[in-house]
Structures are given as C-alpha cells and as structure tokens.
Design a protein that fits this description.
about 600 residues, six-stranded mixed β-sheet, alpha+beta, about 25% helix, 14 helices, about 35% strand, six-stranded antiparallel beta barrel, Alpha-Beta Plaits, Elongation Factor Tu (Ef-tu), domain 3, Rossmann fold, single chain
Length: about 600
C-alpha cells in the first residue's frame, strides 16, 4: 500500500479565517478517517485558544486513505499549517515536507497579505499549487473577480482553480481527485541513506519528545539508533507511527510517509524544527536543505501581579516551553515589579498567546513590560553588543551606533484607505517602496518599516483605517543604523527601571510627554509636590508636576493681620521643603499595571 506512486503529501495554505481548518474537517469526513459520531468542528485544533480565535497555533498532520474512482487506493498525508506570520518558519518547514499545496482563497474576501506570502513560500519550494475558491455559496462571493486576482497577483491560470464550500461540503470530491491527479508522488526517495525532515515536535508527559517527520529516503523502525544532524545528537527510537488523526503505531515508516517517532529525549529544545534525522550507523552526507535556527524577535518582561506567585509563573513557563521551543526566558528582577522573567517571542501574536495560556491554563495574573526588539549596539572601542532590554544599554558616551531590525511589510488595503495608510507608515518611520494594484477595489503596498514601530498599535490602527478590510504580512529584511536613545522616567529624581525604553530621538519628546502625563493621572498625590520627568541621559525632555496635598493651616485665623497667615504658610512651606528632601515616593503596584497596560 505504501508504494511511492500511491502516496501524496500536501498542505493547505491560506490567510487567517479563509476556512483552512474547516476544509481539513471535510477531507477527514470524505475519506472516512474519522467516524461521523466522533466528528467535531476544528478537529485538528486541539487547544481551546485555537478554537476560540479560529487560528492554528501548532501544525497537525493527518494520514487519510482515499479510494479514487480512477486509480485505486491512495495514502494522503495532510499537514495542517499555522497561518500567522509569527509562525512562518514552521509554515516553511511544513511546506518543505510536501509536494503540493491547496491554496485556499475566500471567495468573498479575495487574495490577502498572507495568501501571497504563503503562496510565494510554496512557489520557492517548487510545490504544485492547486487554487481553491472557498465559501462560493455566500451571497457576497465574487468568483470572477477573485479568479482575475489569481492571474494578476500570483500568475496562476484561472482554469486551474476549483470551486468549493468547506462548510457545506461542496466540491470536496473534486479537491481529492485534484490532489491525486495533479500532485506528484514523493520526491527525494532515491537518496542512498535514510533522511527524515523534522517539521514539528511536541512533549508528552509519559513518552517524552515526539518528533513529527517526513521520511524522504530509507526507513525508520522501532529500536533504530538515529542521529540528529543539526545538533549531532544520538537518539533511540522507542516508537514509530502515523496520525489517523490520533497517533497510531506502525513500527515502520518508509520513504514518502509522514508520521511521528518517539525518542528518548526529554527536552523539546534539543530537537530543532527543520533538522534532518539519519541512521547513526550509516549517516547521510548532507542535510536536507532549508534548515536554520529560529531566534526570538520580540522581548518582554513577564511579572506576576501577586509577587508570591513567582514560583508558579516559573513552573508555568517551564511547562509551556516543553511544547514550544521558540519560547525563551530567563529570570530578572525589577525594583518596581519585583521578581519576574525576561521572555523572548517570535512575534506579537506569539507573545499574546503565551500570556493568554499562562492566564488560562495556570490561573495566573501576569503583567508584561513594554515589548522590545533585539538591537545591535556598536561601541566606540569596537565591541559589538546584542541588547534586548533597555536596562542593558551601555552609557551613551560609549555608543558609536545602534542598529534596529527592519521588516518588509506587504499591506493589502481598499483603494480609499491609501492616503491614511501612507500617513501611518510615515508616522512609524517607514517608507512605501512600491504600490501594486490587486483589482479595481484593492491595492497592495510594499513598505519597509522598523520592527519596533509595528509592535504596539500598528495592526489595530491598520484595521481601524481600513474598517477591518486591511491585512498585513511581513518578513525580516536585516538591520539598519538609526538614531536611537534610551529614555528613562524619573519620579522625584529616581529612575523607574520598569518604564525605561529605547526610542527614536525624534519621537522621544512626544513619547516622554505622553508617559509623564499618564503617570501624573495615575500616581496618588503625596504631602509634597512630585516631579515626574522623562530623561535621555542627563537631559530632561519632558516634565509634569503632581501637586501636593495642602493642609489648611490658616483655618484657625478668622481675623487679624495678614502677617499671621503668612507666617503659618511660610512655616508650612519650610516643612514641605524638608519633607521633599527626605520623602520617598512609593509607586503602588496598580499604577504600574495601569500604565503598562495602556502602553502595550
């Protein structure tokens, strides 16, 4: 049955919410992989968070047996991929494990930013692309317009497109036939040694690390000694099997198949996505192409709101890291927020998901500091530093230059929003490189922006400018020297480390004023006036003064000479002056929570 010409490996790529997981549900039903009574919506999305948000966070492979009316029984391996830009490396490795891809396009919304990005990934890997127009039964569907977009934007002939509705099951048989007839049988099987591509891994409490892999050549059996070529680590195979969609042990995986192996490794970070596995006794001479290390791009401090929950947060992060090797963390302390962790994430959605999982799965309230990116700092003495935390930035006098990461963003927007969008890009220190027309109503802007500017509110403002019709996808394009400075917030002359951030010099004054104003509204008043200042080094760039409580010391003077009142006021003034010299401002925890929540 596992003859190579009867195996097809394919994935489904699409923009968020274009029906990818719904289509995989219909394919499972049509091939009778899952019994009707066990069927449920979003079957391959196992997390509650995935179901609620309608996004795929981890990829889920599944093996289906399909009886074709034209050519016997086929083994179809579907790899369900994440669709969000943060997980683009996982998408690229999943695509590398396939020979074909179903490019799913919403018939009412058309080609979006991630449709283009994922299609380009598939074209780079030389996959056969089968375009599928989904949701054609909607009243708002415009198949003719979208077929024109398909030709103009992706240069795919309209005759190749299939019409379907994943919700109602329309066109599912045609899709299965197209997978069998158009997608070639597995490639790379003629290589002399065994080579398997690891495209994902998960941790199981009882079994340890489980690798999801595609066997390109040779075979893997239970009990084999294997070698991870990226880390040169030797592993013992305890079990081998396929997904149907539950893990089903088969004892052997042969060339062309997609499945899993259970190893004796206990730490997911030791298995790298994109690595090649080969036999230890007869190793392959070269790895499968495309492997690279994934490095976190966004850093933020996570602190428990209740300081006694520190150990609980530490355990929660350790458990999450078991299934998410891209999450990195190390302990840090802040005079304002106590003990917490500096965490590295692939992007903003990844950060949001980790925080949400900590809140839900471990019942922990956490506060995150202002997100930061990784800067390259060049000192005057020639030393190069990699800085992900504003507190680690060296003295300004010793810095020769600072480089920040840049991104190339593909922004799909309606025509009428182009003016406002270009203003937003300019405000975020970006430039528009080119404008492509998608159709009569939509354009695609190719922009270059600093990653730091996109972190906080860019996506929200994109959605509000375009009334929800805009979408964005981005890729990293290297580093660029910028005029960046570290800005501190001082309260009564003392720097508050939790509010320190790295900003562009031109934006420092505006950002400083905003933060000082917010802090003035949030901080409780004291018996003496408090200076709230924003500073770059020793230069104060913004200031607000929080007025003092004033006791009415003249209340007992109901008459008489003005000098009596003046004497009492002068005495009070002297007392406040003395109090200000020795007084300490303790900033309450909720003030930090309010200002950090309003900043992020």
């Amino acid at each position: 049955m596992s003859a190579l010409n009867h195996i097809r490996n394919f994935c489904i790529i699409a923009h968020i919410d274009h029906g990818k997981t719904t289509l995989s549900d219909r394919l499972l039903e049509a091939t009778h992989t899952v019994q009707k009574r066990k069927m449920q919506d979003q079957l391959l999305d196992s997390m509650d968070l995935e179901r609620e948000r309608g996004i795929t966070i981890k990829c889920h492979p599944v093996t289906m047996r399909y009886q074709s009316p034209n050519g016997g029984e086929f083994l179809l391996n579907l790899i369900d991929t994440p669709g969000h830009v943060d997980f683009s490396y996982e998408v690229s490795r999943s695509i590398a494990a396939c020979e074909g891809a179903l490019l799913l396009i919403d018939a009412s919304q058309g080609i979006e930013a991630q449709t283009v990005a994922n299609a380009n990934l598939a074209i780079e890997q030389e996959l056969v692309i089968i375009p599928v127009l989904n949701k054609i039964d909607l009243q708002s569907a415009q198949p003719d317009v979208i077929l024109t977009q398909l030709e103009d934007v992706l240069a795919i002939p309209r005759e190749e497109a299939l019409m379907a509705s994943a919700k109602s099951g329309l066109g599912i048989d045609a899709i299965l036939e197209a997978v069998v007839s158009r997608i070639p049988s597995p490639r790379g099987s003629d290589y002399p040694q065994t080579r398997c591509l690891v495209f994902d891994s998960v941790f199981d409490t009882y079994q340890g690390v489980i690798c999801y892999l595609r066997v390109f050549s040779g075979e893997v059996k239970t009990g084999d000694e294997m070698l991870l070529m990226g880390t040169q680590q030797r592993v013992q195979v305890k079990d081998v099997g396929i997904f149907s969609p539950q893990m089903t042990s088969t004892k052997t995986l042969t060339a062309g198949q997609v499945g899993y192996i259970v190893t004796n490794i206990k730490d997911v970070s030791e298995i790298k996505i994109g690595d090649t596995i080969t036999h230890y006794s007869d190793p392959a001479a070269e790895m499968l192409p495309g492997y690279k290390e994934v490095h976190p791009m966004v850093f933020s401090g996570l602190y428990p709101i209740d300081t006694s929950d520190y150990e609980k947060l530490k355990a929660a992060l350790a458990r999450l890291q078991l299934n998410d090797a891209a999450l990195v963390y190390q302990s840090e302390s802040s005079t304002a927020l106590g003990f917490g962790f500096r965490c590295g994430f692939l992007g903003l959605l990844h950060m949001e998901i980790v925080q949400e999982r900590i809140r839900r799965e471990y019942n922990l309230d956490v506060i995150s500091t202002y997100p930061s990116v990784v800067y390259h700092v060049y000192k005057t003495d020639g030393e190069e530093l990699v800085v992900d935390n504003p507190l680690h930035l060296p003295d300004p006098s010793s810095i020769a230059s600072i480089q920040e990461p840049m991104i190339r963003a593909m922004i799909h927007i309606p025509n009428e929003s182009i003016g406002d969008m270009l203003m937003l890009v300019a405000e975020k220190r970006g430039t528009c490189v080119r404008t492509d027309t998608v159709d009569a109503h939509r354009v695609m802007l190719c922009c270059e922006l600093p990653l730091n500017e996109v972190l906080v509110d860019f996506n929200d403002r994109l959605k509000s400018i375009t009334k929800g019709y805009g979408s964005m996808d981005y890729e990293l394009m290297g580093y660029q020297t910028s005029n960046l400075v570290k800005m501190d917030l001082l309260v009564n002359g003392e720097a508050i480390d939790a509010f320190s951030l790295i900003v562009h010099r031109e934006k420092a004054v505006t950002r400083g004023r905003e933060l000082c104003q917010k802090l003035k509204e949030i901080l409780p008043r004291q018996m003496f006036a408090i200076a709230i200042q924003a500073a770059i080094g020793s230069t104060i760039i913004a200031r607000e003064t929080l007025g003092a409580y004033r006791k009415d010391v003249t209340a007992k003077c109901y008459g008489g000479d003005i000098t009596r009142k003046r004497k009492l006021l002068e005495k009070q003034k002297e007392g406040k002056k003395k109090m200000k010299q020795i007084g300490k401002v303790s900033i309450p925890q909720d003030a930090f929570i309010k200002i950090l929540k309003s900043s992020t």
